[in-house]
From TrEMBL:
Lineage, highest ranks first: Bacteria, Bacillati, Actinomycetota, Actinomycetes, Pseudonocardiales
Ranges for domain Methyltransferase: 56-146
Record's keyword annotation contains Glycosyltransferase: no
Name this protein carries in UniProt: SAM-dependent methyltransferase
Gene3D superfamilies the record matches: Vaccinia Virus protein VP39
Superkingdom of origin organism: Bacteria
UniProt-listed InterPro entries: Methyltransf_25 (IPR041698), SAM-dependent_MTases_sf (IPR029063)
Species of the source: Actinomycetospora corticicola
GO biological process, one term: methylation
Keywords recorded for this protein, A-Z: Methyltransferase, Transferase
Length: 216
C-alpha cells in the first residue's frame, strides 16, 4: 500500500492536538457519541450487526472512546491510531482496553479475520488516491458479512487545515467526500452499502455522512 507523503506531518499534528482534543471531549462532550443520539445509534446498530462475527478493529481510534464503548457492549475490540500521543491518552483513559500505534495504511491485516472495522472520523486525512486501497484492505480483512462503519465530512473540498481544536497549529488536509462517491468507493472495494445516514451541518461540525457496508 502506498504511504501518504504527508503521513509524518499528519502524525505530528495529531500528537500536537491530542491534549486539546481530549480536553474538548471532556469539557464539551463534542466527539463523544453518547452526546449525539444519531451517531450513538449508528454505533449501536454496528455493534449489534457484528456481534458474534469476530474481533473488531477501531482504526483511527483517537483517545479510544468508541473502542471503549464497543468493549462495554461485549465486543472483542482493539483501537489503533497513527498518533502515539492519542494512544497514550486512550491507554490512560481506558486501561482495560487494547490499543496500538499504526497507520491505516500500514496495518498488514490478515484476510477474513475481522467481524467489524471502523473508520470513525479517521479516514478524511487519507489522500484521495490512497483511500480506495485502504478500503480494499479493510474489505479483505473482514469475514464475509463483516461490517465496516465510516463517519466522515461531506463536501467536495480538500481543506488545508493550519489549526484545530482551539487554535493548536496543525498541517493536514481534510478531504471531504460526497456520500455517493464514498458509496462507489465502498462498492468498488467489494463492500455492499447497508446503511447511509446523512446529517446536516451542526456547527462546529459540517455536514456528515455515516455509512455502513458489508463484505460480500
Ligand atoms: C478526529 S480524530 C477521531 C478520533 C476517534 N475516531 C474519535 O471519534 O474520537 C481523527 C483520528 O484519526 C487518526 N488518524 C489520522 N490519520 C490516520 C491514519 N493514516 N491511520 C490511523 N489513524 C489516523 C488521528 O491520529 C486521530 O486520532
Amino acid at each position: 500500500m502506498r504511504r501518504p507523503e504527508d503521513l509524518d506531518t499528519v502524525r505530528e499534528s495529531y500528537d500536537r492536538v491530542a491534549d486539546a482534543y481530549v480536553e474538548m471531549v471532556e469539557t464539551t462532550g463534542l466527539g463523544d457519541i453518547r452526546t449525539h443520539p444519531w451517531l450513538q445509534a449508528s454505533v449501536d446498530a454496528f455493534a449489534a450487526s457484528v456481534a458474534g462475527l469476530g474481533p473488531v478493529l477501531d482504526v483511527g481510534c483517537g483517545p479510544g472512546l468508541v473502542t471503549a464503548y464497543l468493549a462495554e457492549r461485549g465486543l472483542d475490540v482493539t483501537g489503533v491510531d497513527l498518533s502515539p500521543r492519542m494512544v497514550e491518552h486512550a491507554r490512560r483513559l481506558f486501561p482495560t482496553c487494547s490499543f496500538q500505534v499504526a497507520s491505516a495504511t500500514d496495518l498488514d491485516l490478515a484476510d477474513a479475520t475481522y467481524g467489524g472495522l471502523l473508520g470513525w472520523w479517521s479516514l478524511f486525512n487519507l489522500p484521495r488516491d490512497v483511500l480506495p486501497e485502504v478500503l480494499a484492505s479493510f474489505a479483505r480483512a473482514l469475514v464475509p458479512g463483516g461490517r465496516l462503519l465510516v463517519a466522515t465530512h461531506v463536501g467536495d473540498d480538500d481543506l488545508e487545515r493550519t489549526e484545530a481544536y482551539g487554535g493548536v497549529p496543525v498541517r493536514w488536509t481534510t478531504h471531504q467526500w460526497r456520500p455517493e462517491q464514498l458509496a462507489s468507493l465502498l462498492e468498488a472495494a467489494n463492500l455492499a452499502v447497508v446503511a447511509d445516514l446523512r446529517l446536516p451541518a451542526e456547527p462546529p461540525i459540517g455536514p456528515t455522512v455515516v455509512m455502513c457496508a458489508a463484505r460480500r
